[in-house]
Specification:
Elements (H helix, E strand, L loop, with lengths): L2 H34 L16 E5 L11 E10 L3 E7 L7 E5 L7 E9 L5 E3 L6 E2 L9 E11 L12 E2 L2 E7 L1
Length: 176
């Protein structure tokens, strides 16, 4: 064999083979680690804060004296803005009524309500008309303490039948 060919093989091919082998070995070592990496995974976090509100009247059976304004204290706490509708079993249009315990009597005692909806002043309540409760704090929610006024327009001098008169009020809260 010619020495020039042998020199060429030793010099270029052998070195190329060594370089190629080294490169192949590095790839073999690195390829499994590339395939061992997991694809990205996303984790979505969600939570739900339940709506909480608490309305407490200081009394649940209120005795009314005709011609007097009767105050009933209340507290309201909550963590979301609400509307309040105050309805009555015996309201007609925009007027509240207490009715006689005996349904055969048609006597009614008209009365009105004034409620502090959170703005610090009292507003006349219209039956079934929801109003926003104001004063909601985005950090602490509601923390109201006030009273409602029950005002009768009848007096003991009115010609009313003897007996008990009553009405039931319902306080309904809905989201604003």
């Amino acid at each position: 064999m010619d020495t020039k060919i042998l020199d060429f093989i030793k010099k270029y091919i052998y070195r190329s083979f060594l370089n190629f082998s080294l490169l192949f070995l590095l790839l073999l070592v690195n390829i499994p680690s590339l395939y061992a990496l997991a694809p990205p995974v996303e984790l979505h976090l969600n939570t739900t804060i339940e709506a909480v509100s608490n309305f407490v009247l200081a009394e649940d059976d209120v005795i009314i004296t005709l011609g007097d304004t009767r105050e009933v204290a209340y507290t309201f706490t909550g963590n979301f803005p609400v509307k309040l509708a105050i309805t009555s079993d015996h309201s007609v249009g925009t007027q509240f009524y207490m009715v006689h315990e005996d349904p055969s009597f048609t006597d009614k005692i008209p009365y009105s309500l004034q409620f502090n909806y959170g703005e610090g002043t009292f507003s006349t309540v219209l039956p079934t008309t929801p109003r926003n409760i104001t004063g909601f704090n985005t950090t602490t929610g509601y923390n109201l303490s006030s009273h409602l006024n029950i005002i009768t327009t009848a007096s003991s001098a009115d010609d009313l039948s003897e007996g008990e008169y009553s009405d039931t009020l319902t306080f309904s809260f809905t989201a604003q």
